[in-house]
Structures are given as structure tokens and as C-alpha cells.
Design a protein that fits this description.
The chain is mainly α. It contains eleven helices and no strands. The protein has helices spanning 3-10, 14-20, 25-31, 35-45, 54-67, 78-90, 96-112, 117-129, 137-140, 150-160, 173-179. Helix 4 (35-45) packs antiparallel against helix 5 (54-67) and helix 6 (78-90) runs antiparallel to helix 7 (96-112).
């Protein structure tokens, strides 16, 4: 299966599908500077045979959210707590409920903070929410233009999830077609 076909089957946004063109998954992974789109794909496919497990996806989301924490004012700890609680879940030291509560607190902080701190706090909340819904991780990796360099976030994702850990789409043709389709997709400006 071609990457473009998989993205269409999953309901990816037109601009992402157009950008992929005829690229293979490995080539697109190496060249993409949109961490949000990379994380949308692995979050949507996580747990399917050959794709990264939820724990790996959550850790990548945490890395992206943590990168943006420099924009959160000193003394505001709810975003950092959401990230550390999500990482604790990966290690088996926190429950999903604890992670959800920490994510909710980071989201409340985001609501009260002004930009750019609010964007960083929302990223932390969505990294935590990826524990229960992996596709949420895309929002943890989304950076509004000018907040942080998007290429830096994409490099963080590639470090956490190297292309060698992604499936060969030709060998998972039937599994991707049968299990892939979700109607949920993200549209970014």
C-alpha cells in the first residue's frame, strides 16, 4: 500500500496527502517538518501491527510538549506535571485516571494563560490525553507559526520514533486497509 492511499483511507487533510505525493513512508518521515502530521499518523495507527505502541507515541508527544515548556511562566507547574504524569504512566507508575486529571489541570492552566504559554500548556494536556486516545498526540506536536521551529519538533519525533520502527507498508497492506480507517482527522491552517 502506498502512503498516499493510507492517508486517504484514514481521512488525512488534503494538504498532507498532496505533500506526500509519491513519497514512501520512510522518505516522508525523513523529510517532513510537520511533527503534528507525523504524530497524527502514528497516533491514528498506534497499536496496529507494525506501528509504534501507545507508550512510544505518548513519549514522543511528551518530548514535543516539553520542548515548548520554556514558554510557560515560572511557578506554573500544571503543564510540566501533565508531561511527567504521562511519562509515569508509560513506566507503570501512574494510572490513566491520574494522567487524565493532570491533563485536565494543564488544560485549565492553558485556558487562563496568554499566548504563547497557553499553546505550550495545551500541548502538555494533549500529550497526557494521548494515554487514552493516541490520535490526540498530534495536538501535542502542533506548534503555531513562530512558537517554536516546526522542524525542531519533527526532529524530536524522529528521535523518539525512528523510521526503522515504522512498518513497511507493502508488507502490511491488508492490515492497514482492514484496520486503518477512522473518520477523525485533523485540519491545520
Amino acid at each position: 500500500m502506498e502512503l498516499k492511499t493510507l492517508l486517504n483511507n484514514l481521512g488525512a487533510c488534503k494538504s498532507a496527502v498532496d505533500w506526500v505525493g509519491d513519497r514512501s513512508l520512510a522518505q516522508a518521515w525523513a523529510e517532513c517538518n510537520r511533527a503534528d502530521r507525523m504524530m497524527w499518523l502514528v497516533g491514528t495507527m498506534c497499536g496496529k501491527r507494525g506501528w509504534p505502541p501507545r507508550q512510544k507515541v505518548v513519549l514522543a508527544g511528551c518530548a514535543c510538549a516539553e520542548y515548548m515548556l520554556t514558554h510557560v511562566p515560572a511557578g506554573e507547574s500544571r503543564a510540566a506535571k501533565a508531561i511527567s504524569t504521562a511519562r509515569a504512566w508509560v513506566d507503570g507508575r501512574a494510572t490513566r485516571r491520574e494522567v487524565t486529571i493532570a491533563g485536565d489541570r494543564a488544560e485549565r492552566a492553558a485556558f487562563l494563560l496568554s499566548y504563547p504559554a497557553s499553546s505550550a500548556a495545551y500541548a502538555a494536556a494533549y500529550a497526557a490525553y494521548a494515554v487514552r486516545e493516541p490520535a490526540c498526540v498530534a495536538y501535542a506536536a502542533f506548534s503555531p507559526v513562530g512558537l517554536v521551529p516546526r522542524k525542531n519538533l519533527a526532529d524530536l519525533v524522529r528521535k523518539q520514533i525512528p523510521s526503522a520502527e515504522l512498518p513497511d507498508l507493502d508488507s502490511c497492506d491488508n492490515i492497514c486497509r482492514r484496520e486503518g480507517g477512522r473518520s477523525w482527522s485533523m485540519k491545520f491552517r
